[in-house]
Write a structure and sequence with these properties.
Layout (H helix, E strand, L loop, with lengths): L2 H5 L8 E7 L3 H10 L3 E8 L4 E3 L6 E6 L2 E6 L5 E6 L2 H10 L5 E2 L6 E5 L5 E6 L3
Parallel strand pairs: 1-5, 6-9
Antiparallel strand pairs: 1-6, 2-3, 2-4, 4-5, 7-8, 8-9
């Protein structure tokens, strides 16, 4: 039985996903995900005004495993970020399913919505 037959809805192509986790101890989490086999691609810091690349005082780290990404942050909230080719089509499909995506902020093409527990899900345009 296909997804269409199970749910009555056509499959929505959500593309590449980035999981974003808030962690209690960033150094321990970096060590854990490195041992798990993820490749650390970037360590970010903050200079009080904008994000910067920082190994000395990191506030979040980005890892890759295959075509998936995990961001670890010491502040913030858990969320997912999907990169799709056609955000308006995905937004339409989600609205037809009774979900309520809202337009992303200025300068962004896409939408966001919250799951029942308040976790944010972003649907954004794929980057080349």
């Amino acid at each position: 039985m296909t997804d269409d037959e199970k749910t009555g809805w056509p499959q929505v192509e959500l593309g590449e996903v980035t999981m974003i986790f808030t962690v209690k101890d960033l150094a321990k989490s970096i060590d854990f995900y490195t041992r798990l086999g993820f490749e650390r691609t970037v360590v970010h810091g903050h200079d009080g005004e904008k994000p910067i690349s920082s190994e000395d005082n990191p506030t979040w780290a980005t890892f890759r495993c295959g075509n998936q990404s995990v961001d670890l942050m010491d502040i913030g909230m858990n969320m997912m970020h999907f990169e799709v080719d056609d955000p308006p089509a995905v937004m339409t499909a989600l609205t037809e399913r009774g979900l309520a995506p809202s337009a992303a902020g200025p300068g962004n093409t896409g939408a966001s919505l919250e799951d029942p527990d308040g976790n944010i899900i972003y649907i954004m345009k794929s980057t080349p």
